[in-house]
Specification:
- The structure is a single chain.
- The strands form 3 sheets. An 8-stranded mixed beta sheet has the order 12-13-15-14-16-19-17-18. Strands 1-2-5-11-7-8 form a 6-stranded antiparallel beta sheet, with no helix packed on it. A 5-stranded mixed beta sheet has the order 3-4-6-10-9, with no helix packed on it.
- The chain is an alpha+beta fold.
- 28% of the residues lie in helices and 26% in strands.
Length: 411
């Protein structure tokens, strides 16, 4: 019996060593669950049923709508809870039985300013920004009037392109390459899959160093996801892909917060928490499972994580790095060389905007450094950056990374 307990203890210890360890960041956050106010999914009917507005699709956000006069409709947009980063996401569907002109007044809570430039689509695939001449902001940008001229049929109005968890899965399944394998890191609080794409020349996990890519910790941050898509596609198609993937393996987590995305949240998980403040104690199930998955694969295969890139959206393009006072990672000099490589590949005098800081908050970038001594960089892609340029940056980022990793392997 004593031997049974002894071996059981060894198994428990071994299991624990394959979990992410906590870290006391200088600026802590309370990431225990906070209550969330779910929007009511419903249709709103006007003009005797000739005009219908609804939020009955994944990633929609509309908390209410009322008719003000013959052509003006006031749409209420509220966050899932507070306090919250004031980045109001909205997405709604309009069905009309005839061509009509109408104005939607997007209305936010007091003190919350408009952020995302409105876009329209008839099929949720092709999106067009609303002409700026048809937009009117109030004095403090807490409301925005959007004048629309609609043909008969169905139309979507949204803050950014609507990309829900099923769209992400469709993209992952569309990747045709001998280098990719799709896995599950776990499930979200509400049971949605946390997909992970493994990229390697050898589908068996081996001793090759690991590069990790993240996206969609914050639901509305679609431009970061679009850049990650271009990055991954470039990686798979590059002439030096085989050489790179013979020496490195990639773990890609394209949607870390699928509940928040599909619920139409401004920023938080279904637990009411900013996922990118939970990389200290892993209280949210999504962060816990993704962190443990990475640590488990690293330790099981006796390798190391050398780099983590977390793709976000921002008001403007911005790369958040660690400053020169931070001790070097296992990739000394990588961040400067990589950013310069992006500039060179884009050309035309383009310059990366870099914000360097210290490890203070429990974000993913800080977690990569404290957990693995890996390089951790947050790649912020501007909300309104031209979408072709977003893809160009994604491609240039992948090309620069390939060149740098093949030329300067980790210490």
């Amino acid at each position: 019996m004593r031997y049974c307990f002894f071996f059981l203890s060894l198994l428990l210890v071994a299991g624990c060593t394959r979990r992410a360890t906590p870290y006391d960041f200088p600026t802590p956050y309370d990431t225990a669950d906070h209550p969330v106010d779910l929007q009511v999914k419903r249709e709103y009917s006007f003009a005797r049923g000739g005009l219908v507005v609804d939020n009955q699709f994944d990633a929609a956000r509309l908390n209410g709508i009322e008719q003000v006069n013959d052509t003006l409709y006031r749409a209420i947009i509220l966050p899932e809870n507070t306090p919250i980063n004031p980045s109001p996401w909205y997405a709604l569907r309009i069905r009309t039985d005839r061509a009509r002109d109408l104005t939607l007044r997007l209305t936010y809570p007091p003190g919350v300013r408009h952020r995302y430039f409105p876009k329209v689509s008839a099929d949720r695939r092709r999106w067009t920004p609303v002409d700026s001449s048809r937009l009117t902001y109030n004095s403090d940008s807490t409301t925005l009037d959007v004048r629309l001229s609609l043909a008969a049929g169905t139309h979507y109005l949204a803050a950014q392109e609507v990309v829900d968890s099923r769209d992400v899965m469709d993209w992952l399944l569309s990747l045709r390459s001998p280098y990719v394998a799709l896995d599950r890191a776990g499930t979200s609080k509400l049971g949605r899959m946390l997909p992970v794409l493994r990229i390697s020349a050898d589908m068996r996990y081996g001793h090759k160093p690991i590069v990790v890519l993240f996206s969609r910790q914050h639901p509305p941050e679609v431009t970061g996801y679009l850049a990650l898509q271009a990055f991954v596609e470039t990686l798979l198609e590059h002439p030096r892909a085989e050489a790179l993937l013979d020496r490195y393996q990639f773990l890609v987590f394209p949607i870390l917060n699928p509940d928040g995305v599909d619920l139409g949240h401004w920023r938080h998980t279904a637990g009411g928490i900013d996922a990118n403040r939970d990389w200290a104690y892993y209280r949210q199930p999504e962060v816990r499972q993704v962190a443990d998955y990475i640590v488990h694969k690293m330790r099981l295969n006796e390798t190391k994580v050398i780099l983590g890139l977390d793709f976000h959206s921002a008001w403007h393009d911005d790369y958040h790095t660690l400053d020169s006072d931070t001790p070097p990672s296992v990739l000394p000099g990588f961040q400067d060389a990589w950013l310069r490589g992006i500039e060179e590949r884009i050309g035309g005098g383009f310059r990366v905007h870099e914000s360097a800081g210290t490890i203070s908050r429990p974000t993913s970038a800080g977690w990569f450094r404290t957990q693995f001594n890996a390089e951790g960089i947050t790649c912020g892609i501007g909300d309104d950056t031209d979408r072709e340029f977003v893809r160009r940056k994604g491609r240039a980022s992948a090309e620069a990374l390939i060149g740098e990793l093949l030329s300067h392997p980790p210490e």
